[in-house]
Design brief:
This protein is an alpha+beta fold. It has four domains: 84 residues, 2-Layer Sandwich (Phosphorylase Kinase, domain 1); 208 residues, Transferase(Phosphotransferase) domain 1 (Transferase(Phosphotransferase), domain 1, Orthogonal Bundle), CATH 1.10.510.10; 30 residues; 134 residues, Jelly Rolls, CATH 2.60.120. It is built from 13 helices and 21 strands. The strands form six sheets. The chain has a six-stranded antiparallel sheet, covered by helices on one side. A five-stranded antiparallel sheet has the order 12-14-19-16-17, with no helix packed on it.
Length: 491
C-alpha cells in the first residue's frame, strides 16, 4: 500500500508498525500538509463485524480524550470498505525501544514517564475507558522527551458490554494483571497494575516474570510474588519500591484505587528522588516543574525555574536559620536531624542523633534496609524505612525483624508513637541496655499489637532505664512489607 492514498487525502509513505488487527503507516496529509499516522484494518479481518466494531470503538474512545500525554485522533472513516483511523504523528521512539537501547533508565526519568502515563490513564478512566494493554510498546517518547500513550485498540468502556468472549484474555502477558490473566472483570486498577510492571521494567531493564510460554507468564502474575525491585537495583528508595508494591498487589483491594492516587505518590517520590540525588535527568525536569507547590518543596532549587520558588526558599532558609540559632543553645544529648517532635500531654520527646536508628535482623543476613533507617527519625513523613518483602509468613522464615533507636543515654521511656503508610503489620516493643545478638536478650516492654496509620504504644519498663528501644515486627500485611515512616519515643 506504500504510495497509495487513503480517502484521497492521506498518502502512505512508510509502514511503522503492525499488529494482529491493523497496520500503522506514516502518511502525508495532502490537504493540511503535515505528517500523520494512519492505522488501517487488515483486509483479512475487515469483513468481521466484531473486529470492525472494536476498531470503530477505538476511534470513538480516543477521540473523546484530549490530553498532552495521549496520542490524539485526527480523523476516522472507511476507504474501499477498509476502516482506518488517523492519529497525530509522534516522531521519536517507543518506551520499549528506549529501554532496549539504554537498559535501566535513570531513576528520575523512569518515575517521570510513569507519572505521564498515569496522567494519561487518569484522563482515560475519567471518560470511563480502560486501556487494558498498557505496556512500553504502547508509549511513544517524542523528540522533547514527553511520553504519550497510544493504541487503545482493546480499550473498553465501563458503560457497555464487551465484544470479547467470556474468559478471553486481552493484553500482553508480560504486563497483564492477575484478573485479566484469569479472564475476570477488568477495571481501571488493571491498568495501574500494568503501569507498575512498566515502571519495574524501566528501573531494572527487564520484566519481572519469564517463562517458556505466554500462558506460563500470565500464571506467574497470578501466583508468584513480585521480585524485589531493590534486589535488582539497590539504590532505589524505599518510597519508590513501595509505589511498585502497591501498584502490583495481586488483589485489587490492596492496589491503588485510582490513577490519581498513584500519580500523587509518584510525584512525591520524584521530588524525593531529586532531593536525594540533587539532579533531575531527562523528562524528570519537565515533570518536576509541573508539580504543585507543596510537592515541589522537596525539589532542589537548581531544577526549578520559577522565581517564586526561589523567593519562598530564601524565606524558608532564613526561618530555619533563626530556629537553628535558637535551638543551638538549648541542645541536649541526641538532638535529632529532623524537626523536634512535639510533647504529648505530660510526656516529653526523647531527642535522637540523626544516625540513632538501626535496622535489626539477627536471624537473617543482618541487614534490613539499613541505608533507610534514619528516615524513621528524620522528622519527615514523606520518607520512610521499610522491611524487605517476604513472600511467605514472616515468622516461618525467621523470628522477626525490626528497627531500634539509640537514645544516647539510658531513659525510662513511657510511650512510643509510630506512623506507618503500610498498615496492617503487628509488632512488640523491646528495650535493652546494650544491643543483644538475638531477640531473647531484649526485655519486652509492650505486648503484641497491630499498627495502623499512627499508633501510640504505652511502654512498661518497670521504672528501669534503657538506652535502646526496638520495634520487633512479627507479621506483615498483604503487601508483605511493613514501614515506619516516623517514630517518636517519649518519657
Amino acid at each position: 500500500m506504500i504510495g497509495t492514498f487513503i480517502a484521497g487525502r492521506f498518502r502512505l509513505e512508510e509502514r511503522i508498525g503492525s499488529g494482529g488487527m491493523a497496520t500503522v503507516y506514516r502518511a502525508f496529509d495532502e490537504t493540511l500538509e503535515r505528517w500523520v499516522a494512519i492505522k488501517v484494518l487488515h483486509a483479512e479481518v475487515a469483513g468481521e463485524e466484531d473486529q470492525i466494531e472494536r476498531f470503530r470503538r477505538e476511534a470513538r474512545a480516543v477521540a473523546r480524550l484530549s490530553h498532552p500525554n495521549v496520542v490524539a485522533v485526527i480523523d476516522a472513516g472507511e476507504d474501499d470498505a477498509r476502516p482506518y483511523i488517523v492519529f497525530q504523528y509522534v516522531e521519536g521512539e517507543t518506551l520499549k525501544d528506549r529501554i532496549r537501547r539504554l537498559g535501566q533508565l535513570p531513576v528520575g526519568e523512569a518515575v517521570a514517564y510513569a507519572i505521564e502515563i498515569g496522567r494519561a490513564l487518569a484522563a482515560a478512566h475519567g471518560e470511563r475507558l480502560v486501556h487494558r494493554d498498557v505496556k512500553p510498546q504502547n508509549v511513544l517518547i517524542d523528540l522533547d522527551g514527553s511520553a504519550k500513550v497510544t493504541d487503545f485498540g482493546i480499550a473498553r468502556s465501563l458503560e457497555m458490554e464487551g465484544l470479547t468472549q467470556p474468559g478471553r484474555v486481552l493484553g500482553t502477558t508480560d504486563y497483564v494483571s492477575p484478573e485479566q490473566a484469569l479472564g475476570h472483570k477488568v477495571t481501571p486498577q488493571s491498568d495501574l497494575y500494568s503501569l507498575g510492571i512498566c515502571l519495574f521494567e524501566m528501573l531494572t531493564g527487564g520484566v519481572p516474570y519469564r517463562a517458556d510460554t505466554p500462558v506460563a507468564v500470565a500464571m506467574k502474575h497470578v501466583r508468584e510474588g513480585m521480585p524485589d525491585v531493590r534486589g535488582r537495583r539497590p539504590e532505589i528508595s524505599a518510597s519508590l519500591a513501595a509505589v511498585i508494591d502497591h501498584a502490583t498487589a495481586k488483589e485489587t483491594r490492596n492496589r491503588y484505587a485510582t490513577a490519581e492516587e498513584m500519580v500523587a505518590h509518584l510525584e512525591e517520590t520524584l521530588a524525593i528522588e531529586a532531593a536525594r540525588s540533587g539532579e533531575a535527568p531527562g523528562e524528570a525536569t519537565t515533570v518536576l516543574r509541573q508539580l504543585s507547590s507543596d510537592t515541589a518543596d522537596f525539589v532542589p532549587l537548581r531544577v526549578r525555574n520559577h522565581a517564586r520558588y526561589v523567593a519562598v526558599a530564601l524565606l524558608g532558609l532564613a526561618a530555619v536559620a533563626l530556629v537553628l540559632a535558637f535551638v543551638a543553645g538549648r541542645t541536649e544529648q541526641g538532638t535529632p536531624g529532623g524537626a523536634a517532635p512535639q510533647g504529648r500531654g505530660n510526656l516529653t520527646p526523647v531527642r535522637f542523633a540523626a544516625s540513632a536508628a538501626t535496622d535489626y535482623d539477627p536471624a537473617g543476613d543482618g541487614r534490613e534496609s539499613p541505608t533507610d533507617a534514619r528516615n524513621a527519625i528524620d522528622g519527615e513523613r514523606s520518607t520512610l524505612w521499610d522491611t524487605e518483602r517476604y513472600d511467605g509468613e514472616l515468622t516461618r522464615l525467621k523470628p522477626g525483624v525490626g528497627l531500634y533507636v539509640d537514645t544516647g543515654a539510658p531513659v525510662a521511656a513511657r510511650q512510643l508513637d509510630v506512623i506507618t503508610s503500610m498498615p496492617g503489620w503487628e509488632a512488640e516493643i523491646f528495650a535493652a541496655e546494650a544491643v543483644p545478638k538475638g531477640i531473647e536478650g531484649w526485655t519486652r516492654v509492650s505486648g503484641r499489637r497491630p499498627f495502623e496509620g499512627q499508633t501510640d504504644v504505652r511502654l512498661d519498663t518497670g521504672g528501669r532505664r534503657f538506652r535502646y528501644y526496638l520495634v520487633w515486627i512479627l507479621s506483615l500485611p498483604p503487601g508483605r512489607r511493613a514501614s515506619i515512616d516516623e517514630m517518636t519515643l517519649l518519657r
